[in-house]
Design brief:
The chain is an alpha/beta fold. It has a single domain, classed as 3-Layer(aba) Sandwich (Rossmann fold). 35% of the residues lie in helices and 19% in strands. α1 links the parallel β3 and β4.
Length: 262
Amino acid sequence: MSAVAWSEETVQVAGTPVHYYCGGEGPPLLVLHGLDPNPAWLACHQALATHFRVYAPTHPGFGRTPLVPWMRRVSDLTLFYLWLLEEMGLERVLLLGHGLGGWVAADLAITCPHLVERLVLVDAAGVKPPHGEILDVFLLPWPEVQAALVATPTPEWQRHFGATSTPEEEERWETVLVALARLSWKPYLYDPRLPHVLPRLRCPTLIVWGREDRLLPLACGELYRERIAASRLVVLEACGHYPHVEQPQAFLEAVVPFLRPN
């Protein structure tokens, strides 16, 4: 199979140039990354792009997209991505969100259900676990955060997320922490109202979770499964916070048939 062509583009949203990766042909799939900088066109993007037209934007303040001064909560980021969909002319999408991006994806599907055909939540933030706790990344130095987020450090994970810490990488992480603190500091990485409004989410939903996730424990995934009626939970063993990078084959075997059932 020949490699799928992809590119890096920008689109203006609310006066801000939003960086995004795109590639592939087929139904539009919006992929929202986690609390880390959006590092590259990953192998999972490439694999998904053999079935879908993949759009993978960078959150404001998380790398190649500038910080947006008025953005103070995740609901602001949700509104921003609704605006992005309008600017791209995308009237209905498949939606996949990881970590922080999963929280935004769930909020978007609740706010504008007519826009989302199917939803995939991958180790998503947004809910407080009924037991266990969310790892506080603000208390740990960057190398310890890196080590905590992975159970199976694959070569791709090492290349994009687990490289030896450098002053440049630590500065990027500090920039991300600024953006993250603006979006979700108190309460930290969850919204108390979200479990109560999740039943409004009616589109078919797949929840994928790494059993060894030390940032967002599996109890969060189980809570999402409990509150979303049309959902099912897939748990990947020997896997931390990055199922799409740590267990790419198992991840794709779960996600692709769900997003493209026919």
